[in-house]
Every structure is written in structure tokens, then in C-alpha cells.
Amino acid sequence: MDDLYALPGVSDKTRHKIESMFMAPVDNSAALARDLLLQGLIPTGELRPVWARFLLSLLMRSPEQIRTFKSKIVGDWQNPSVALQARYQAERKPNWPATFEQMMLTVEPELAERTGILMATHLMQNEKVLTLFMSAMWNVLDVSQHTDMRFMTSDHPVIMTNGLGREDGHFALAISPTHLFAGFMNQEIMKAIKGLHPDVIVDDVNKLVIGQGRKYVYALDKGPLELVRAGMATLDYMTFFPEES
Which of 83, 87, 152, 184 pairs as cysteine with 190 (C-beta 3.0–4.6 A)? Predict the structure, then answer.
């Protein structure tokens, strides 16, 4: 999507800073980790947090998620909580408007939207979540020699359990039509999933990425078209919201 991370109400020089100074470096450095994974090698050293950050970014950088962050901040500022109003009163200077709502009516209208985009990029660097990603047992499943089925992907490509901190927590991302990156919090769960027939693994992954897809689903050919039509946008995807604004 054009201008997805563009900052409104700033100079042309600053407008695309999120893309050029954050998103592009995240993607470029993650490509090095991906290249290792495609060789069956697990990233170590500085590439491990690089890949973890890329995974986390994928969970919150889609058009739907960015729109949600913007709406969340705008909604909170237009209908401030008691705590937010109290914080404003505590920090209010004599020349400031009497209430937080009045203050929001006088500042530049794009401020809340900009804050939503910046909040999203801040959460993409959440140390707690990155640590959970990195603490998992990372694997690459190569199905190229074991099945004719191929992985698909979508605009919400990361599949995961509802909570990385769970004992059965796991997550996965198809990184090619024949390679699946997966992380597991529990060795028994890892053995159970890796022990499944490759046809089952590919089928389960494809159903999830199709269901999570909202606008785009990708495959090598049109063979799964009816499956996509029936299953697209039927499942929720993992969402992240700012705890407070």
C-alpha cells in the first residue's frame, strides 16, 4: 500500500522516515537471516534478534494493523480516559486549554495519527516479545522431497498460538513454497508437529494463512483458488494494541 507508514503533517523530507530508517533496515537485515534459513541454517549472533524483530514487525505492519493503531490513538484522544485526563491536568501549563479534549481540538489534527504510526513502530521493538521469540527452539522444515504440496502465504503470513508464553506456544512462517520456519516453546510439541506427515503440515499451514488473509493470498498456481475463495478472511490473526495512550 502506498504511503502506508507515511507520517502526516510533516515536511516531505520527514514524511517517509519510518519506511527509510526503520522498515527498510528491518527487511534488508532480515533477508540475510532468511537466506541462512533457506539453507537449513539457524541464525545466531546478531541475526537472531534481527529475525525475531522481522517476525514481530509482520504481526503489526499490515494495512489493517496500522489502521487499527491510528484509530486506537485517535479514539483514545477524542474520548480520553479518567487517567489520561488526570495526567493532562497534572502536567497542564497555565496557558494550555482547560481540558484534554479542548487541547486536542487546538493542536494539529494529524498528531494523533502520527502518534499511532510511531506507537506501532515502538511495539515492533518490544524487548519482552522479542525475547520470547528468541528463546524458542527454531527449526526449518523442508518438504521439497517429501510431498508435491507447496506452502502458500498471505498478507497476514505469521501463524501462531494465542500467546507465546504458553507451554504449547509455537509460531511459523512460510519462507518459500517448500520451506517453513517454525519456533517452539516446548520440545514435546516440536516433536509432535515435526512428526506429522508433510502433507498434513502443508495443508494446516495453508488453511491458516488463507484464513488470516484479508486482501492477498499467494500460491505458485491457481490450483487452490476455490480453497482460497472459501476460506479467505475466515480466521482472526494475531493483533497487538497499545496498552495505554
Answer: 184
